[in-house]
Write a structure and sequence with these properties.
The protein has 450 residues and is α+β, with helices and mostly antiparallel strands. The protein is built from 16 helices and 11 strands. The chain has a 3-stranded antiparallel beta sheet. Strands 1-4 form a two-stranded antiparallel sheet. It has a two-stranded antiparallel sheet with strand order 2-3.
Length: 450
Amino acid sequence: ESAMDRNYSSSTGEEFFTGGGAHRFDNFSADDDGHIMPLREGFRKSVNLVFVRLMRDVVRHHMFQTPGSSAKLLTDANDPRRKEYLMRFADREGRIFVRRFLQKYRGKTPQEAEDLLVQGVRATDAKLAVIFRSIDPDAGEGSFSTFLSKHLAEDKPSEAQSKSLYEKYASDKFSLADRGYVVGVHPLELWVVGFIRAHPGATEAQVLEASSDERQAVYRWLFSTRRKNAQDRRILNLLEVEGFLEVHRAWKRLGYPFDSLVPSYASALGSSADRPAALAELMGIIVNEGIRRPAVRLQSLHFAAATPYETRFARRPQTGERVLPKEVALVARRSLIDVVESGTAKRLSGALTDGHGNVIEIGGKTGTGDHRFDTYGKHGQLISSRVVNRSATFMFLLGDNYFGTLVAYVPGEDAAKYHFTSALATQILKGLMPTLSALFGQEKEARSCR
């Protein structure tokens, strides 16, 4: 209970560095911005920034408090494990960029790839020289001069200048990182264009295998302890990934259905990264006071009755597994009931009875998803927005024995025509209350007869 009384800020002014980049989050209602509130209130009102900061605390717990945590690397510049972490960072980060550049240049002819690369830079003789000598290091001076003439038509260098540039910017004169710095592009972009030029049929796996040394070379400057601040940023990135691995392991025990979890605080918001059945299973754990009981769809199967091949399969009784402390489950249940009694699902308060006027407790959690693919300019301006889907979710418990999930969902561009929120899901459930009340009434009568 004390954890639910812990205060969190709902301010939208903070920038969060998570998932390898800087992110800002908004609350569903601007009325909730800028407050300090207990977690209990944030849960009841579905305040996004409270959950973002809660997720940050959970991840940091795994990063810094878990026994054997490697976080002390950040305080000791001489810890020998720093190098291991930086090598892992270089490999992981490098793979991301190699795949990105492969996608950019896939299907292009060598000439098309060359032109696309040059289009992305402000052409100078030095930059063009580095580009050419990086992507086609064995080409002769004649091809180099033609390349310069094509891209520097108004300021074509003399034959002597061309020869000097050819020799000065040979690929073996500069490291890959330095060449990328001179051109103003990611060094691995130069390497990818050159590699697929020399190996046009290479698969992604082959390119990744071949780039192993280059991925390390690009980040080699980080291994200097003089770069401790830069090292720390990258080590924190890896530690966050490790923290989310622990979060994912804990969530899997509670029914999370996927084999991976996006390492971002945004994972605390919405239901787009979950499935209705998994949400219902989580509600079942809470209803059962922290015990995860096996889901059963069929009690028995009976094949080939009255024949020599008659076969019966019957379910074997199984015991449940405790995945949450009972105390935690009871606090979660109380918080879910608060959402209905005075929060975002208040329209359901008192809506369910047993047919004899006795109110049945309802608990639940609402969620609205307005999923868009937004593209921003370098100054933060919105360039384009494409609607992906819209959803409204309500995961609920009814009394001591029933639970489930109700989802309204519109996929694709048609979602732009809709503006519903999670209130739609709760209203649909409210419309079912007469039928459910009759069910609870029958259940009560059956118990009294026994």
